[in-house]
Amino acid sequence: MATYASLNLGYFALLQDIPKRIITSSTIDAMHRMARTGKSDWAWVKHITQMVAGCASKDYYCEAKTVFDSFHDLIWNQNWFRYIRDPHQVELVESPWQLYLRRASDCDGWASLMAAAAGAIGAPYRFVTIAADPNRPSDPSHVYTEIWIPKGNGQEGRWVGADLTVKSATFGWEPPPEYKRTYWREPKY
Asked: Which CATH number characterizes residue 121's domain?
């Protein structure tokens, strides 16, 4: 078990006044920073590497699915983590370890966590924002992660949805196509 001191490695939180609860480019930038904080933290990389130890070497689909399934199970079946809204009129974006300390987050936190986990095992990721609120069909109100699975096992390389915020979701599930989508690739460092 990691010590409290190691859990604070890479901690950073961004607070913005966002009265409409829309996902802005500033939110996405903060999410990318949180994912980078995680995937460059030795304790985090070790944690995720241990999580995927049961996968065969170079089975990238197994690794990504195992990470997704592990976090999804902790949220929805074991209630170890929980989905919770941000503080009122504040956009909170946590690092992976801060999310572990809080044991709760909303869609941007879970997307950042999934991106940091994917990055820790060498997988490219991107964020997908969607306009899921029918009262605001042009405003992005939800975000999730897609993970790049390279070509292999007779399949072409592809982006695979990894939305931890939906209880019934499985690895690869994505919101219905009628929602307006924007794709936010990981920046070059």
From this structure: 3.10.620
Residue 164 included in any domain: yes
pLDDT tens per residue across all 189 residues of the chain: 444 444 443 333 444 444 456 788 888 999 999 999 999 999 999 999 999 999 999 999 999 999 999 999 999 999 999 888 887 777 788 889 889 899 999 999 999 999 999 999 999 999 999 988 888 888 888 999 999 999 876 678 999 999 999 999 999 999 888 888 899 988 887
Angstrom distances, CA of residue 29 to CA of 47, 85, 93, 127, 131: 24, 20, 10, 10, 18
Residues whose CB is less than 8 angstroms from the CB of residue 135 and which lie 6 or more positions away in sequence, other chains included:
none
Q: Residue 14 corresponds to which tokens in the numbers above?
A: 């961004």
